[in-house]
Amino acid sequence: MVRISIPTLPAAPLVAPSGLSILPLPQAASHLAKFLENGKGKTVMLTGAGVSVDSGIRAYRGEKGTYSNPNYKPILYHELVENSDRGDMFRRRYWARSFLGYPPVRDAQPNPTHIYIAALQHLGLAPKLITQNVDNLHRKAFSLLSPKYKQSSILELHGTLAKVHCLKHRHEQPRDTYQEDIANLNPVWNEESKEAERTGRRPRTNPDGDVELHGVDYRSFTVPPCRLCEEEKEDASMVKPNVVFFGETIAPAVRDESLNLITSSSSLLILGTSLATYSAFRLVKLAIEHKKPVLMITTGPTRADPFVGKGLEKMDRIAGEVLGKYLDEAVKTSTGQEVEDVKKYLHTGIVKRPPEVEGPRAEG
């Protein structure tokens, strides 16, 4: 039997704060400016759950991060797809919890950090983005600045919660459509979801749309089959969100594209992530191996800390503060339609911290 564990990080930083971490904010922004200048418009960005905390979505790790809790047990891929009574119960548990947890993720709005990252793309300073996040917020932010933005500019390494597909025929449909199917088959659960929305008393929601419920009998929950299978008179198939579960491999096309983005880049800018998952960490390893400059702006320990001083620079600080200060100065000395677009939205974005999350932002 293959043992699958949830990636974790050491409790304390592996390295002491460097000079970059204690620079005054204007000097930190100047350092970022030099890094992007040297990138000559071919810098690739890599983001994680830390950039979405200010949109009301908890990070996986860091203070009060879900996966920092050794008692938290997410459903693994092989459990979700298991063709047995046991697998059926896993699917009931997953979809019941996700049905309640998806609306807060769906309704979340970009925060200032998302806007800053979209601005770097729109200005051509770092046009390509790889994100580990499944919340669709980078796309929302980029579409604000550039309604005709290229979807290919953003690679969602772990997929998106905004879509689902069936496993047998790969029929894809919007997540909202499947939410409607769930609501129709589960009126009691639907009423619970509406009540949570009315009162604002939603259960604790994780970045993957899962919520924490205790003492619940999931046997009362009905998981809808794929409606497209039924419409096309094909054998009904189980439905899965377009996200990568623990124990599931990333699609080869996505993996290859992520590797190609790194090899064709001039440098790598890492924002708001602990890099605990190997799919993201290997991109940093590849950049280091190809001797590409790497700058990481994030808080707390990360899996890449051993690379500090060996091709990687780290600012142990909140990424959005550095990006915002840098862009303030950058737009003062630049002209053009793209600059005007950025000025219009630069310090917009909605800050809505997750309940119970205070103080420094946790990173994902």
Automatic annotation (TrEMBL):
Region (Disordered): 189-213
SUPFAM superfamilies xref list: DHS-like NAD/FAD-binding domain
Species, as recorded: Kwoniella shivajii
Biased composition (Basic and acidic residues): 191-213
Segments traversing the membrane: none
Protein name (record): Deacetylase sirtuin-type domain-containing protein
UniProt-listed InterPro entries: DHS-like_NAD/FAD-binding_dom, NAD-dep_sirtuin_deacylases, Sirtuin, Sirtuin_cat_small_dom_sf, Ssirtuin_cat_dom
Subcellular location: Mitochondrion
Domain Deacetylase sirtuin-type as annotated: residue spans: 22-334
Family per similarity comment: Belongs to the sirtuin family. Class I subfamily.
Alphabetized UniProt keyword annotations: Mitochondrion, NAD, Transferase, Transit peptide
